[in-house]
Amino acid sequence: MLKLGVPSKGRLMEKTFEWFGERGVVLRKAGSEREYAGAVDGIEGIELVLLSAGEIPRELAAGRIHLGVTGSDLIREKLANWDARVSVIEQMGFGGADLIIAVPQAWVDVDTLDDLDAAAAAFRAKHGFRMRIATKYHRLVREFLRENGVADYQLVDSQGATEGVVKNETAEAIADITSTGETLRANGLKIIDDGLIHASQATLFRGVRDRWDDAQRATFKALEKMLNV
Predict the structure, then answer these.
(1) 142 and 196 fall within a common domain
(2) Domain of 113?
(3) Tally of domains within the chain
């Protein structure tokens, strides 16, 4: 069987089911609402695996699932050298959100990454420690800031309510996912002009390390034809 991993709950699961259904592949939960079991109608040879979106990158890279739907931000964050471990089959056009750098609106002189670098150096000189940027996307943020020459900062982990850490004085800036920016503005934050790290969306990926048998390859070709990808 060809194993397809999709998010197990929430809007991402609903939109994934809808996307496949519009193309003649019906994904559905099996059993009770509390069970993480699924079924596929409309094509033979595919097993549906319901996982959290954050688990799907790891399972794809390990070869325990063959195909998976998750956010492109999660793939890039959780997998080093991600493009050597998975390949993009199709961007699905939903689940869009931007991973950005945001600073306090009161920092009127900080509008670009160059400004942020200067502010970080001034902050360290004044306070004796590096400016803190709160995020759960450590790999993506560190690579982005390094590529753009921003130094004298430290990343601090934030797994929830990241927009509030500046008000709570546990960080000076944040790097987080946003769709509209409304929550950032409500918390006195602004996105710096060139601070877009990654524009994420739900994407169908294929693991590249898999050794598929003839039946799995035939199933995948049939699926590609149905999905028109």
Answers:
(1) yes
(2) 97-200
(3) 2
Sequence letter at residue 60? L
Whichever domain contains 111, its CATH number is 3.40.190.10
pLDDT at 31 over 90: no
Helices and strands per DSSP (H, E), number in the chain = 7, 12
Q: Which of 86, 44, 89, 91 is nearest to 64 (CA)?
A: 86
Q: How far is CA 165 from CA 46, 152, 171, in A?
A: 44, 19, 6
Phi, psi (degrees; rounded to nearest 5) at 154: -135, 140
Residue 67 has, within 13 A of its CA and on its CB side, a CA count of 20
What predicted TM-score, i.e. pTM, was given to this entire model?
0.91
**Span 94-117, pLDDT tens digits:** 999 999 999 999 999 999 999 999
Closest to 170 in 3D by CA, of 187, 145, 194:
187
pLDDT tens per residue across span 173-222: 999 999 989 999 999 999 999 999 999 999 999 998 668 899 999 999 99
Pairing of strands 173-178, 97-104: antiparallel
